[in-house]
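sry for the spam today, last one i promise. struct tokens for design, 120 residues
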């Protein structure tokens, strides 16, 4: 996972890129791997302690990408999120959380936090 942020004047733009090396399955495009998967992209104010979220967006298109594979069953893939933006003062950053809900495990979404972008 790579989280990126850039500034143009008072506006901060953020996006994330996910890349994965999956295993080969005999099934092609198995829609039963997850009950749900989403990325939560956030723009936060950078400060000492907890960084407050200024704007966030849940992006669910990654589920289809994670369950997709080639005709030979290879499930390697990548996904780039749409860009979000927010007018922000000094010291903003982008952050990313991946939520996975494995099919029929009864545990709901598991949270996976990733390193945020440098402050812009």
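last one done:
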């Amino acid at each position: 996972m790579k989280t990126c942020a850039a500034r143009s004047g008072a506006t901060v733009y953020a996006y994330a890129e996910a890349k994965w090396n999956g295993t080969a399955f005999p099934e092609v495009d198995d829609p039963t791997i997850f009950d749900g998967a989403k990325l939560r992209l956030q723009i936060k104010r950078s400060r000492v302690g907890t960084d407050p979220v200024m704007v966030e967006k849940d992006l669910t298109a990654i589920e289809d990408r994670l369950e997709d594979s080639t005709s030979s069953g290879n499930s390697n893939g990548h996904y780039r999120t749409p860009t979000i933006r927010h007018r922000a003062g000094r010291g903003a950053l982008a952050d990313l959380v991946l939520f996975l809900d494995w099919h029929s495990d009864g545990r709901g979404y598991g949270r996976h936090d990733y390193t945020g972008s440098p402050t812009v």
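The first strand starts at residue 2 and ends at 8. ok im logging off now
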